[in-house]
Amino acid sequence: MLDFLDISKPFDRLDNPVTLEIERAIIRWVHAEARLLDAERYQEWLDGFIDPEIHYWMPDMETRRRDDPRGTFKYGESAYFDDNWRELEIRVKRYNEPSAWADNPATRHVHLISNIEVNATDDPALFAVCSAFTNVRNRNEADQDIIHGRREDVLRAVDGGYRLLRRRVLIVQNVLLSKNLNTFF
Amino acid sequence: MMIELCDSADIGEGEIIRVDVPGCPAIAIARHEGALYVFPDRCPHADESLSEGWLEDGRVVCGVHFAEFELGSGAVHNPPVGCPNLSFFKCEDRDGKVFATLTGGPEHV
Amino acid sequence: MCDGGCKGGARGRPNMAPVYPKAASYPEYAQLVNRENAQVDRRLFVDEAIYQAELQQIFARSWLFLAHESQIPSPGDFIRTSMGEDDVIVVRQRDGSVKAFLNSCPHRGNRVCMVDAGTKARGFICNYHGWSFGIDGGLRGTDGKVYEKDQAFEKAQIGLTPVAQIDSYKGLIFGTFDPAAPSLLDFFGPFTFYLDIMLDNDEGGTEFIGGAIKSEIDCNWKFPAENFVGDILHAFWTHQSGAQAILGAGVDLGKRYDELAFQASVYGHGIETNLDKVGNTRTLGYPELVDYVYDLSEKASARLGDLRARAIGAISSCTVFPNFSFLPGQNTFRVWHPRGPGKIELVVWTLVNKNAPEHIKEAYRKGVMMTFSPGGVFEMDDGENWEYSTRVNQGFVTRQQPLHYALGLESTDLERELPGHIHKGSMNDANQRLFYTRWAEFMEHDNWTDLQNGDTAPPQKSVKAAE
């Protein structure tokens, strides 16, 4: 069980299917979250989808030899996100400022989510959810940034719904081919 | 028949030296944890000199493509494609002189 | 026609000695910096010919930042980086020294190192034909048993082209491709006085936190470099949203701004600071860092004197000419690698004192991530400014209009006994004017005697009063 919450480790044992009913509910949750992020409704996202104990991590990728024990990324080193709830809230506060110039005029977003796999864990309240994404941002006339990656989420069942407890975002870019990351994944 | 190669004091712990024997291809001698090892000074991969490599954790490391050969068994690790094991000559330390049997070629000892 | 003795078209054997480029003189480019009227011509930011001249005159001659000693502690540890657009490997040698080489095989030119970094490398083998180079850059051998049988092949002459000079200053390793360049200390001149604010404020020295954030920005490299050399002014407008998010208020100048704030410049390197103790550190958003810097500042006044101790966490920024920048107090260190006139690759690291407690190092790691990385609440708003400052100059008429660099023309401070050219107030274009003056000196001069004795050279004066 603990392994699912240790953000430095990838998911293993992804062979625990859930009931069709739970799977449908979680897939609805994943799509609803993406729709909220597309609309830049960040405060609602924080209040309605994020667990107070969230750990949200997106490391930067290094190119290393296959036999390098450090690997492509390492928890505790540099990262794009390594946030708890308060830190996510700081980012959301910036978006809410009228002088957030990189978001004014507004950016147009699409979060495409696919390859969704929902798994039960040893804890009946926690679900291990994998997905892949395409994140498209376009602003001004022709500034376009596209980022592909995978997510490994742990969702907690709370009050008949779900909250994101852990998210590990692994993108495929080494040098980030964008001037900034004015979005969430 | 064993022939004399050099003084055993010429080879320090952890060192590989090259010895030229008239009429034979170059020979390499290594010392690891006191023991001596005699082998062709030629990597079985691409003929590079092994005496220009180094010893690491009981292995001879070729300095060119980094094949590693276990001292004693000659078993290869981290081999470039097609690299066979290394073979050794029988050798002994007699009264401070290194002797080895070079006729008949190296073998797994 | 080949009579059999023509060596397949060759007339002699290859001379594989390193080739270091010669500098030239481009007075027509130097004139684009109008020092009479404090204006800069926009062609500096878009013109391909000027960009190629920069690679020759500036990046092939200046001492450029390569790595922090802590990134490559053991023999064989290496990182791959750039000097200008040249790909370079920086390797710790068995004797503890550091060497750096062009990351290009002398055979067909392929990169011999494909990764960002590694530990305890035994050497570098080219994927193309298996040519193998030691960590000292020398050619060890080749694959296929072919060259060894070629009587004319002279292995001993061949190796990866070494960076001509390598030196380090208090943990930071620099290199230059110019064998004739003055020493690293001479290249800095008395600017080391200001570098020590971050590099020598604690007896244990410094280290980089692992990893590096790399990103591309479609801007000319000089816009971010001049931004860090002395443009605190932008913080109040550009970064208002970030300051609100973290501090719940705008950027604060400090109570004694008029009395304390200044800009200093030596050979185009520049720092601006408000000497307000913790203004920059506060914006990282972790109160324990503010406490740490207050304590550090008190202890450091014995090492650095009161003035520099006040600068450790103050509202401030710094660029080492041409493209290495950092923010005291926020501890972000970065290089703006040029990638053509309209693109950079930005690499960002976090610097901490080795002796800092682990929870402080962790707070810096997260604080820099939250502020000065691509998703950080401050850096978020920088990129678009620099991209459009660059891109608009594609307009033919637009780029005929010179840019205004005239803030603080009457602000020279002749009274404060500090090293370099001192100007009053940190909100000032003085350092940026001197940055572009230095740029013009590099364009104009083909020799270091002229380069080190121009208008950006430090005025001769005592610095004792500041110590």
Automatic annotation (TrEMBL), chain A:
Top enzyme class: oxidoreductase
Superkingdom in the source lineage: Bacteria
Record's keyword terms, sorted: Dioxygenase, Oxidoreductase
GO MF terms, alphabetically ordered: dioxygenase activity
Enzyme Commission identifier(s): 1.14.12.-
Pfam entry (one): Ring_hydroxyl_B
InterPro entries assigned: NTF2-like_dom_sf, Rng_hydr_dOase-bsu
Keyword Oxidoreductase: yes
Biological-process GO terms, alphabetical: 3-phenylpropionate catabolic process
NCBIfam families: PRK10069.1
Family: Belongs to the bacterial ring-hydroxylating dioxygenase beta subunit family.
Protein name (database record): Ethylbenzene dioxygenase beta subunit
Organism of derivation: Actibacterium naphthalenivorans
TrEMBL record, chain B:
Pfam family, one: Rieske
Record GO terms (molecular function): 2 iron, 2 sulfur cluster binding; metal ion binding
Rieske domain mapped to chain residues: 3-100
Protein's name in the database: Nitrite reductase/ring-hydroxylating ferredoxin subunit
Keyword terms of this UniProt record: 2Fe-2S, Iron, Iron-sulfur, Metal-binding
The keyword Transferase is assigned to this record: no
Domain of life of the source: Bacteria
Keyword check for Cell inner membrane: no
SUPFAM superfamilies the record matches: ISP domain
Automatic annotation (TrEMBL), chain C:
Boundaries of every Rieske domain copy: 63-175
Gene Ontology MF terms: 2 iron, 2 sulfur cluster binding; dioxygenase activity; iron ion binding
Keyword check for Magnesium: no
Record field: transmembrane: none
Enzyme class: oxidoreductase
UniProt KW keywords: 2Fe-2S, Aromatic hydrocarbons catabolism, Dioxygenase, Iron, Iron-sulfur, Metal-binding, NAD, Oxidoreductase
Domain of life: Bacteria
InterPro entries named among the record's database cross-references: RHO_NdoB-like_C (IPR043266), Rieske_2Fe-2S (IPR017941), Rieske_2Fe-2S_sf (IPR036922), Ring_hydroxy_dOase_asu_C_dom (IPR015879), Rng_hydr_dOase-A (IPR001663)
EC number of this enzyme: 1.14.12.-
Family statement: Belongs to the bacterial ring-hydroxylating dioxygenase alpha subunit family.
Protein name according to UniProt: Ethylbenzene dioxygenase alpha subunit
Lineage, highest ranks first: Bacteria, Pseudomonadati, Pseudomonadota, Alphaproteobacteria, Rhodobacterales
